[in-house]
Amino acid sequence: MEAQEYNYIRRELLNLVGVDLSAYRSQQVQRRLATFLLRSGHPNWPSFFRTVRDDPASIRKLKDYLTINVSAFFRDPEKYEHFKDTILPELLHDCATLNVWSAGCSYGQEPYSLAITLSEINGSSHPHHILATDFDQHALEHARSGGPYSAEEVANVPAVLLKRYFTSLPNGYQVKEDLQRQITFRQHNLLEDPIDDDLDLIVCRNVVIYFTAEIKSQLYRRFHDALRPGGVLFVGGTEIISEAADIALTPAGISFYPRRAD
After folding, report:
1. CATH number, domain at 202?
2. How much is the pTM?
């Protein structure tokens, strides 16, 4: 894709769906755009944009495709085991009530997984503050309503927890209201909006991987600043923060980066 064409597409997408592609890795985005255009049946992007401007459903489909809302409950189960057995007890030793932020929460699978894990460890006697944010309002509405989620999405949920925290429906599973009430969902632009501070745990998994190296570095530094000393950043199973030592984050097993004490 020529630079002039890509710049045109970026401008049009920013106006149409509010997604700024300049922060994303260009080669990866261009491959996704080419695939989308091919599936759309349009011969070129000007034809596509002319057709969809007054078509909310097509705009919604494009935005969903660009924001890559893919997740599952207890994604990377072995990481959640390490979180439950090692990371979480250390955090709870310092503070009985945790301040948690699930950044880029998509359709809610991640924050609900966190809420289940915390409930199993602490019960309901120590309610935690769990904020879940995403740029995509449509995904947030689904998360806020507790589903429904498909059998594939809940495949990693143990049967006993599935029965305890979900209601079985003809078309999938619904999170029970008690668990829904433990989470505050809010729209948030990770690249522009302010971030709360003094957090005990930030969970941002398989989100930063789509950004440029410069944007990644900026986000990791913002995450560091938002954590309290001893607070932990929980990232995706394949994510490595190469500059961790430079920003006072210390690896504690794959996917976990505590902020060093000042």
Report:
1. 3.40.50.150
2. 0.80
